[in-house]
Amino acid sequence: MRVYRLGCCLLAAALAAYGQVAKVAEQQVTAFTLADGLRIVVLERHQAPVAAFHTLVGGGSVNDPPGQTGLVTLLGRMQLKGSESIGSRNWAEEKRALEAVDEARSRMDAERDKGILRNEDQYGMLRTQWRLAVDAAQRASNSAEYRRVLTDAGASEIASWADYDSMHVSYTLPSNRLELWFAMEAQRLMHPVVRDFDQERAAMIEDANKERALPQARVLASLLAAAFTAHPYRVPQTGWPSDEPELTRRQAQQFLETHYVPGNIVMTMAGDVDPAEARRLAEKYLGPMPARPMPPALHTAEPPQQGPRTVVLEQNGQALIAVAFKRPDYYDKDDSTLDVFQMALVNGKTGLARQDLVNDRKLVLKVEIVSTFPDGQYPNLFAFLLVPAPGRGVDDALKGLDALIERLRTRKVPADEVAAARNELQSQIYQRLATNSFMARMLAIHTWIYGDWKKMFTITDAIGGVTDDDLLRVAQRYLTTANRTTVYTAIPGQPLNRSLP
Q1: In 332-467, which residue ranges form alpha helices assigned H by DSSP?
Q2: Pick from 51, 43, 145: nearest CA to 94
Q3: 366 and 416 share a domain?
Q4: Are residues 281 and 328 in the same domain?
Q5: Is 139 a member of any domain?
Q6: CA distance linking residue 277 with residue 299, whole number of Å
Q7: CATH code of residue 247
Q8: Tens of pLDDT along 320-376?
Q9: Are 197 and 252 a contacting pair, CB within 8 Å?
Q10: Phi, psi (rounded to 5 degrees) for 352
Q11: What 3-state DSSP class applies to 159?
Q12: Same-domain status, 397 and 257
């Protein structure tokens, strides 16, 4: 008991110290909006002459146009390919070469789409012309130049990606390279060029095929496709396999022109940065960016689920189970409660789900819980992932999970478990506040999602206010049979739900 009390005292002291760090960080943030609508947030930290930079553009894979699924994920891989003046050996020549690629692709697709009237010889010739045009455009480009300029200037942690809701570019630079960052980002955002498109599309398809071959990826993809019938969360981020080869450079360029508008962009920096100098450089390099209408909002909403859904996948090997329940988006008051609920279930080795299903009853080998899946800007899923223990079948694991869920819906989680989950969540957040790259990313995300960077500093307060009554309430509200989707695997030719005595 003395050791337990000492541990609690040390944890409380650590949380208090981290909380003070958060308060100091909040006081060191400066935010401003340019006349064109672009938002910039600066966190001053002068301990070292470096800074982390993050640019977020609204629009992720949920915004893929119809028939163009995978487009934004592909663009996320290509954001550091340069601009008209960076990444080209001769822009006038490269521009003509890229236009030739687009024209050749259009002619080839037009012939192919004639169906039974297609002239195979003509199609083969057009396909050869397209490939030659792609090669010519490749020779005219110098797509590695943009990244090379950054690395020569001391950049590190360079990353470019897209998620379901937005596109991101981040890296760290010496603080005396602040003007270079503004100049490079202004080029990338104001004069974007989609180059190396066909090569990157082929690489994405190869990566997607490898991912689709993984058993867990198949289960999760089936879970999303079954749980969502209308909302784009049902679509794999890399797109449907039939859409991926059909993506074109023109489609990609059009998406950038629609979404690279000032009001749709958030830029953040954390580290050795002077806010006044950042504002001056922002006005110089990004102020001229013309204000344009915001891209269209996503209006497709998932209809209410009317009953449980179950999918069985036939595959050899270890059985896998995914069970998910519909839950609200980030903006809902229950968001923090669901995060605490997830932590209470899988916190370390003693979380309630791990203790019950793994340690005590030995029904599963592994249990993971994701409180927000696949992303949170729209209503999403609270998901359980289970691997049955040796000698146990799918039926054993599902019955065990059902019993656990019934207990969570009828009995409160012990107060000490709730407190431990709250503390662990807060501790994880506070520890990461010390990282400039994390802070830059979180400032961008919270500014984009909530319209206010301050939200990231109030989340820990919301977590700290979660009670055992709140956990019981969300269990009763969301973990319902009608709200449930289940996916599990079965060995072909063997009885389903086979379990050993």
Answers
A1: 335-346, 352-353, 394-410, 415-432, 436-450, 455-464
A2: 145
A3: yes
A4: no
A5: yes
A6: 40
A7: 3.30.830.10
A8: 999 999 999 999 999 999 999 999 999 877 799 999 999 999 999 999 999 999 999
A9: yes
A10: -55, -45
A11: strand
A12: no
